[in-house]
Write a structure and sequence with these properties.
single chain; alpha/beta; TIM Barrel; 3 domains; globular; binds zinc ion
């Protein structure tokens, strides 16, 4: 009885309102709990994600002093592409720069690596060990190597691409580039003869690279002579890049000779650690730019390093190609 007395119409109305309000609040809570944002390709979010991944301090609160204006014009594929690169940019600006400058690769094209082993043929035993590595290497033989025709025939039969490793004049007077060397200022006929002799030492090759040559590859006249000969023989040129100021690439382009340039030396230091670090660098370059060209030598550390590394490429989605597929 008391209850009905207490429950005046006004109070009854308040209780109804309170119940309605409670239902609305509960409903909101349920919606919030169930709400999961859909996967987004928003570039800004991706940058925050990358940033979190590369910055090791857990209490770092990312702040993005960025205008979203230019970022929204970036193809999401660039972000996806960049995510697979395992290197560690140091700052947010680095991450953004890389996201904006990264080339977009066609999904069907694997990152490619070219592994050139030059100075081949002189150390016969180690050269044979190089030939025994998995097929698809590019092997550059010195023209004065002993028994050169048999060595190169065997290498080609094993599935490697062949190049002539043409001796060219170095800056240092103490380095010995071998018996027949192209030199700056050489008389044109002598220069032509040495080059011809080198290119006639064996056959089955499709291009050349320079042995030493830190002096010769800076000389436009000499490089123009080399490129004219390569053009007439339909050969490519790989610049070993023994000097930063090389004009070989420019002269090859002028002469219409397909060419490319070395990115990484595998065995500058004769240690397994150095070779392993260099191979990791080759992978990073290939994943970033789609192509990396490395040069190594017939050394035990290089042979062992490659023997372990080459079979891992397939799982990494990286393709080993000969130099002829990398020249432009
Ligand atoms: Zn060399």
């Amino acid at each position: 009885m008391k209850i009905f007395k207490v429950l005046t119409p006004l109070r009854a109305a308040s209780i109804v309102l309170a119940v309605v309000a409670l239902v609305i609040v509960l409903d909101q809570l349920v919606v919030k709990r169930d709400y999961a944002p859909p996967p987004s390709h928003d570039v800004t979010e991706a940058i925050v994600a990358v940033e979190r991944d590369v910055i090791p301090t857990p209490d770092f609160a990312p702040s993005l002093p960025l205008s979203t204006e230019p970022l929204q014009t970036v193809d999401p594929a660039v972000v996806v592409d960049e995510d697979i690169i395992p290197h560690e940019p140091e700052t947010v600006d680095d991450v953004v720069d890389e996201l904006l400058s990264a080339p977009v690769h066609h999904a069907a094209t694997n990152p490619r690596v070219v592994i050139i082993i030059d100075d081949m043929g002189v150390d016969v035993k180690r050269s044979a060990a190089v030939v025994d590595l998995p097929a698809g290497l590019t092997l550059a033989y010195l023209p004065y190597a002993s028994n050169i025709k048999a060595q190169t025939a065997k290498a080609k039969e094993a599935g490697h691409e062949l190049m002539v490793h043409v001796p060219m004049e170095p800056m240092s007077q103490t380095k010995d580039p071998g018996p027949e060397v192209l030199r700056v200022g050489q008389d044109e006929a002598a220069f032509a003869q040495i080059l011809q002799d080198g290119l006639n030492a064996f056959d089955g090759y499709v291009g050349i690279n320079n042995h030493m040559g830190s002096k010769l590859t800076q000389d436009k006249t000499a490089m123009a002579r080399v490129m004219t000969e390569l053009k007439s023989r339909n050969l490519y040129f790989i610049d070993s890049r023994t000097i930063q100021n090389s004009v070989a690439g420019d002269m090859a382009r002028e002469a219409g000779v397909p060419h490319a340039s070395r990115d990484v030396f595998l065995d500058h230091e004769n240690t397994a650690e150095f070779v392993s670090k260099s191979l990791a660098q080759v992978e990073r370059k290939a994943l970033k730019d789609g192509l990396a060209i490395a040069i190594g030598h017939p050394k035990d550390v290089t042979i062992e390093g490659l023997r372990a590394w080459l079979p891992t490429l397939k799982d990494k989605g990286i393709e080993l190609v000969p130099a002829s597929q990398a020249v432009k």
